[in-house]
Write a structure and sequence with these properties.
With 447 residues, this protein is an alpha/beta fold. The protein has four domains: 100 residues, 3-Layer(aba) Sandwich (Rossmann fold), CATH 3.40.50.11060; 78 residues, no CATH class; 166 residues, Rossmann fold (3-Layer(aba) Sandwich), CATH 3.40.50; 61 residues, Alpha-Beta Plaits (2-Layer Sandwich), CATH 3.30.70. 38% of the residues lie in helices and 20% in strands. Strands 6-7-5-8-9-10 form a six-stranded mixed β-sheet, sandwiched between helices. A four-stranded parallel β-sheet has the order 2-1-3-4, with helices on both faces. The chain has a four-stranded antiparallel β-sheet with strand order 12-13-11-14. About 6% of the residues have low confidence. The protein binds guanosine-5'-triphosphate and magnesium ion. Guanosine-5'-triphosphate binds next to helix 8. Magnesium ion binds next to helix 8.
Length: 447
C-alpha cells in the first residue's frame, strides 16, 4: 500500500470506527465505555460505524493496542465501511504510523479529535488563533516526515486555515504544515503566540478593570447546561445546543439579583476529561474571566450516569488553571430529567454547597439568586452616609458602587442607607471630603 497521508486530521462527514484501550486504574463509564468518544466523534461531524474496546495491562509500545487488535480494527473498519479509526487514547506519532500501516486508514487520537471539533467551532479571531496554535503544537511533530504528499492536498482556505470546508485537514492547519517547511511552522507558532499574548494582555486589563465588581463564572463539563443557565438568569441570549462544545468563547453579562444588587456573570467554554494541555494553555485568555472570578458556579449535568466522573474532570481542569481555591457552588442541573436520584445524593455527600436546579424549568433558580446574594453580602456592610445634594457625580458613583437601600433628602444634603464593600466606602470617603459617614460601619455580616 502507498504510504498513508496523514495530513487530514478532520473527520467531517466520515464514518468512524471507535477504539478504546482500557488500562488498569482508568476510570470510565462501564455501562457505556465508548459513549463519550461517540459524542465527540458526532460533534466533529462523523458518523459512528462501529466500536471496540480492549483491556490491557499496559499499552503496546509499537501500536498501543495489541494482540491482533490492529488487524481486527482493520477488519471491522472494512465491514463497517469506516474511513477513519479514532482512538480514545493519546497515541505517539510512531504508534499512529504503525497503526496506519496495518489498518490502512486515517488514525486519530482523542486529542486530535477534540482539536478538530474546536477548529470547526471557532468563530472569533481569538478562538481561531488559539485553536490554530494548539493544533500546530500538537500535530506538527506528529506529521513530521509525512509532508511529501503535497500533490494530494486540497486547496487551503485563507486566513488561519481554520474553518474552511473540504477534505484533507481543511479545518486545521494541516495543509499549512505540509505545504511549507517546519521553519515556517515555527515562525507561524511564534507569530500566533505574539498575537495571543497581545489579546491576553488586553483581556487581563479588561478583567482587572472589573476588579471592583463581584464576578461570577459558570464552569462545568461540556453540555452541562451553562449557556441555558445564563440565558435563564440574564438576557445574554447565548447559543444552546445538545452538542459538545456549543460554546467556545466567553460571554459576560450583568446579572441582576434584586434589591438593586447585581454581579457580572460569565459563560465560557466547557471542559472535557483529558482536555489537551496545549488547548487549555492556548485558551487561557478565553478562560481569564473564570480564572479571576470571585465565585464559580459549577454546573453539573446530573441526568447522566457519568456525572461523578465529569465532576472529577472539571476539578482537574480548574486545578490546571490555578483556580481550585476559588469559592464554588455546585449546581446539580437537569434535575427535571434526572431519573437516578442516587447520583444527586452521591454528589451532595461529596461536594460542599450543592443546590438542585433546572436551568430549563427554572427550578431552584430563586434560591440560587438568594445564595449568591448572601455570598455577595459577606463582602459588604450597611452604612448611613450623607452627601451634599449638588455632588451629582459623587452620588452617581455611590449608585454604581453600592446598593442604595433608602434615600432621605435634607435641604443641603441627601442621606443614604447603603450596602457597600468597606474598601469602596473608604476609597470614596478618602477622595471626597464632602462625603460624611453618619453611622459607623457595623462589623461585616456573616450570615
Ligand atoms: N431537561 C433539561 N435540559 C437542559 C437543562 N439545562 C440544559 N439542558 C439542555 O442541555 C443541552 C446543553 O445545554 P447548553 O446550555 O448548551 O450546555 P453548555 O454547558 O453551555 O454546553 P457547551 O457550551 O457545549 O459546553 C441543551 O440541549 C439544553 O437544552 C435542564 O435543566 N433540563
Ligand atoms: Mg454553552
Amino acid at each position: 500500500m502507498a504510504e498513508l497521508v496523514r495530513e487530514d486530521l478532520s473527520v467531517q462527514r466520515e464514518r468512524a470506527l471507535l477504539v478504546k484501550v482500557i488500562l488498569p486504574g482508568v476510570d470510565f463509564d462501564v455501562r457505556n465505555p465508548l459513549g463519550e468518544l461517540a459524542s465527540l466523534a458526532e460533534a466533529a461531524g462523523a458518523e459512528v460505524a462501529d466500536g471496540m474496546t480492549q483491556k490491557r495491562m499496559r499499552p503496546s509500545a509499537r501500536t498501543y493496542a495489541g494482540r491482533g487488535k490492529p488487524q481486527e480494527s482493520r477488519d471491522r473498519a472494512d465491514a463497517g465501511d469506516a474511513t477513519v479509526v479514532i482512538f480514545d487514547n493519546e497515541l505517539a506519532p510512531s504508534q499512529i504510523r504503525a497503526l496506519e500501516k496495518v489498518i490502512e486508514r486515517k488514525i486519530l487520537d482523542r486529542s486530535e479529535l477534540i482539536l478538530d471539533i474546536f477548529a470547526a467551532r471557532a468563530q472569533t479571531l481569538e478562538a481561531r488563533l488559539q485553536v490554530e496554535l494548539a493544533q500546530l503544537q500538537y500535530t506538527a511533530p506528529r506529521l513530521r516526515g509525512m509532508w511529501t504528499h503535497l500533490e494530494r492536498i486540497a486547496g487551503a482556505g485563507g486566513g488561519t486555515g481554520v474553518g474552511t470546508v473540504g477534505g484533507i485537514g481543511t479545518r486545521g492547519p494541516g495543509e499549512r504544515q505540509i505545504e511549507i517547511d517546519r521553519r515556517i511552522v515555527g515562525r507561524r507558532i511564534a507569530y500566533l503566540k505574539r498575537e495571543l499574548a497581545g489579546i491576553d494582555r488586553r483581556k487581563i486589563r479588561e478583567v482587572r478593570a472589573r476588579r471592583d465588581e463581584f464576578t461570577v463564572s459558570l464552569v462545568g463539563y461540556t453540555n452541562a447546561g451553562k449557556s441555558t443557565l445564563i440565558n435563564a438568569l440574564t438576557d445574554a441570549g447565548q447559543h444552546v445546543e445538545d452538542k459538545l462544545f456549543a460554546t467556545l468563547d466567553t460571554k459576560t453579562t450583568r446579572w441582576a439579583l434584586g434589591e438593586g444588587q447585581s454581579v457580572l456573570l460569565s459563560d465560557t467554554v466547557g471542559f472535557v476529561r483529558d482536555l489537551p494541555h496545549r488547548l487549555v494553555a492556548s485558551f487561557r485568555a478565553t478562560l481569564e474571566a473564570a480564572i479571576h472570578a470571585d465565585l464559580l458556579l459549577h454546573v453539573v449535568d446530573v441526568s447522566v450516569q457519568d456525572a461523578p466522573r465529569q465532576v472529577t474532570a472539571v476539578g482537574q481542569v480548574l486545578e490546571e488553571l490555578g483556580c481550585a481555591g476559588t469559592p464554588t457552588m455546585n449546581l446539580l442541573n437537569k434535575c427535571d430529567i434526572a431519573s437516578d436520584t442516587s447520583i444527586m445524593q452521591v454528589l451532595e455527600n461529596r461536594l460542599p454547597a450543592t443546590l438542585r436546579i433546572s436551568a430549563a424549568t427554572g427550578r431552584g433558580l430563586e434560591e440560587l439568586v438568594e445564595r449568591v446574594r448572601e455570598r455577595l453580602n459577606i463582602k459588604t456592610i450597611d452604612a448611613i452616609i450623607r452627601v451634599p445634594v449638588h455632588e451629582g457625580k459623587l452620588i452617581a458613583q455611590i449608585d454604581q458602587k453600592a446598593s442604595v437601600l433608602e434615600r432621605r433628602y435634607g435641604s443641603t444634603y441627601v442621606e443614604m442607607d447603603v450596602r457597600i464593600d468597606p474598601t469602596h466606602l473608604d476609597q470614596l470617603a478618602g477622595r471626597h471630603p464632602g462625603l460624611e459617614i453618619v453611622s459607623p460601619a457595623p462589623p461585616p455580616r456573616t450570615d
